[in-house]
Each structure stands twice: as C-alpha cells, then as structure tokens.
Amino acid sequence: MFRTFDDMFPKAGHRRSPHLFSVFLALHGRVKKSSRSLGFAIDLKVRVPDYEVDGILWADRHYEGTTLFDKTIIVEATPPPKNKPGRDYRVRYSLNDKGNLNRATKRLKRDDSSVWDSAAADNDETDTVLFRIPLASSSVPGLKGTLRLLCRPWNRERTEVRGSEDG
C-alpha cells in the first residue's frame, strides 16, 4: 500500500489511519499442533518521502527508496486454558531488530479506552478488542507511531458448534 504524506495528513478533514492488513487465525489450522498459540509476521516499511515544492522535486539529502522504518513484527496470540474460558487471549509481539526473530516476547495489554476507534462502533462490534504496538525508528529523520490491532471473532458459528478450540 502506498500513500503520500498529503493522503495521510490532508490540510482539510481528518487524518487517515489506513487499513494495512487482515489476518484470519484458526486454532485448527496451526502449523505446530503442540503449540497453543497462533502467530503471524508483519513486514512494515515506511519510505522516505519525495519532496516537491511548486512542482519541483527536491531530492537533496536522501536517496530514493531509503526508509524511515523497516522492520518485521512478530505477533503471537495464545488462547486461555480450556478450564478458564472467560479469560482473554494472551497477545505478545517483538520487532526483528531486538534479536527475537522467531519469538514474540513483549506482552500487549488490551486497550479498553472508549474513544479508541470508530470502526468497531460503526459495525456494533462489541467483541472487538484493541491492542497497540508502539513503533519508533532511531534515525533522523525518523518515524514514531502506533500500529493498532483490532481483534474480533470471525468464525463465531464454528466456535459455538465445535467449542472454543476452533475460534
């Protein structure tokens, strides 16, 4: 997905938070059956913007194709034990630059803020849970932001029929 600065931050109107991806996880589709967790990787890259002033491209002090942020984010969700069905999934993440290439090590806590996102409210998604992953680069210029993960059941019917093991 490519968005320009003006697309993301228009002078008039609301700033945009683009929908980057959708992931559908199913416990019955785990690759490693001995593990209770489900996981996926996100390759996130934010390129250095090209600067135009009055229709003239200013390419000074950067090379085309360089990035402000370029990391792989590992996300892993573990369902609650069968004997504690009312508990939340445990969600963890890690960034590939921390030496944790194949493990999600940082715990994410759900954001129960009432103003976090209008998308769930618009769809009356009462089962929607929000997690936030802080992102920052150490370079100058750099990037600082938040990756928002909106999580909700996608196969409620199968869960009701076959139990929480499949949800």
Explain how this protein is built.
With 167 residues, the protein is mainly β. It has one domain (19-154). The chain is built from 3 helices and 8 strands. The chain has a 4-stranded antiparallel beta sheet, with no helix packed on it. A two-stranded antiparallel ribbon has the order 2-3. It has a two-stranded antiparallel sheet with strand order 7-8. The chain is elongated, with a radius of gyration of 19 Å. Mean pLDDT is 74; it is low at 157-167.
Judged by helices, strands and strand pairing, the structural class is mainly beta
Main sheet properties: 4 strands, antiparallel
Count of discrete alpha- or pi-helical segments spanning 4 or more residues: 3
Q: How many domains comprise the coordinates?
A: 1
Inertia-based shape: elongated
Question: Order of SSEs, N→C?
Answer: HEEEEEEHEEH
Radius of gyration from the alpha-carbon trace, in angstroms: 19 Å
Strand residue content: 25-35%
